[in-house]
Amino acid sequence: MAFPGALNVRSKPRRVARGGTIAALDVGSTKVVCFIAKVDERGGIRVVGIGHQVSRGVRSGGIVDMEAAETSIGTAVHAAETMAGEQIRDVLVSLSGGQPESQTLTVETPVAGAEIADADVKRALAQARHLEVSADAELIHSIPVGYSVDGSKGIRDPRGMVGEKLGVRLNVVTAAANPVRNLMTCVARCHLGVEGFVMSPYAAGLSCLVEDEMDLGVTLIDMGGGTTSLSVFFDGKMVWCDSVPLGGAHVTNDIARGLTTTVAHAERLKTLYGSAVAASSDEREIIDVPQIGEEERGHANHVPKSLLVGIIQPRLEEIFELVRGRLEASGLSKVAGRRVVLTGGASQLTGMRELAASVLDKQVRMGRPLRIGGLAETVSGPAFAAAAGLLAYAVQQHQELPALAPLMEQPTSWWGRTRLWLRENL
Fold this sequence. Notes:
Layout: E1 21-27, E2 31-39, E3 45-54, E4 58-59, E5 62-63, H1 66-84, E6 90-95, E7 101-110, H2 118-129, E8 137-149, E9 152-155, E10 165-176, H3 177-188, E11 193-199, H4 200-208, H5 211-216, E12 218-223, E13 228-234, E14 237-244, H6 248-258, H7 263-273, E15 286-289, E16 301-304, H8 305-330, H9 333-336, E17 339-343, H10 352-360, E18 363-366, E19 372-373, H11 385-400, H12 414-425
Parallel strand pairs: 1-6, 3-19, 6-11, 12-17, 17-18
Antiparallel strand pairs: 1-2, 2-3, 4-5, 7-10, 8-9, 8-10, 12-13, 13-14, 15-16
Helix pairs in contact: 4-11, 6-7, 6-8, 8-10
C-alpha cells in the first residue's frame, strides 16, 4: 500500500478507472490551457484533447475581469473537448496566485492496538483533512512528509511498529480565500465542477522532476507571465512552496515603457531578440522598434540590442534575487540542495539558465513535461509543465488515495464505536 502524496481537501477525490478520463485546467496570466487525457491499463497518461487560449481577465494569477476570464476558459475547454470528442464535467485547476503560505505542522493521534496498523495511519491522515485555517484562507494541500512514533522522528513507514502515539508531519499549504473562490466561480460559470486545486509549482514539479531530484532535494522555479512560483522537493515530497508576484509580463511591460512601443511589439522583441545576459555582439546588432501610434515602418526607432538586454536583465535579476530571499527565509536552503529546475513559459528566454545559476549560485537545468504521452511538439515545452503536471497529480492521487478510504466521521454512539472497533481489529 502506498502512502498518499497529498490530500487535496477541497473535494472528495474521484478514482479514475483504467481507460477513464481526466481533465486539467491551467489558468495563467498569459494563457489558459486545458488538457483532456485517458488513463491506460498500466496507469499511463495519454493526452487526447488540447485547448489553449490567450488569457484575458487574469493578472498575477488572480481573476480581475470575470467575463473575460470566463470567455478564455470556455474557449480553451471547448477546443479540448472538440479534439477529444467528449464532454467533461470536472477539472483539476492549477493555482499560481492567492499568496500561498506553506508551513510544517504535526498531527498526533493515539494508537488503538499494540502495533500501529493501517487503521491508525488512516485515522491520523483523516485528522489532517480537518485542520482548521482562518476564515480568509483556503486549505489547498496537506501533504504527509514524515511520521513519528512517541516523538521519535524520521520514520518513513510506521506500520508494524510499537508505540502509543503516532504523529504525521505535514506540509500544509493555504491560499487567500477570495482569489480561490473567484477562480472557482469563474470555472463554475463555464458549467464545470472543480475537482480540486493544485498549486502550480507542485504540479510543475510532478511534471518536470525526475525521482532522484525529488529524493535528494531540488528547487523548482515555475516562471509564468504574472507570477514566479517555487517549490522545494525532498525525500520524494513537496516540503515547501511560495510565489513571487513578478513574471514574464513584467519584463514585457518594462520593454514597452523603456522603448516606447506597444505591449504586443514589446513581446515580439523579447521573443525574437531578447536575452537574459549581455553578449559582446549586442552593441553591433541593430533592431527596429515600432513606435506607439506610428503605422509606417520608416518611423521605427533603430536601437542596439544591448539597450533591449539592458532593460530585460535587471528585472530578471530582481525576480531571482526575490526567489533566493524567499528560499533563504524558509530555512530550507540546505534541504533544497544545489539543484534548480527552471520551467514555465517565461523561462525560455536565451541566457535564462546562466543568469539563474549566477544569481542563485546553484546548478540549473531546464524542465519540460516528462512521462506524458500524446503531447505535440508545440505543447510539450516548459510553458505547459503545470498543465501536464495536473494530469500526473490526478493519476498519483487516484493510485494512492485508496489507502485513505473510507474516511469516515468518528461515530458517537456506543454501537457505532463498537462496530468501528470490530471492523478495524478483526
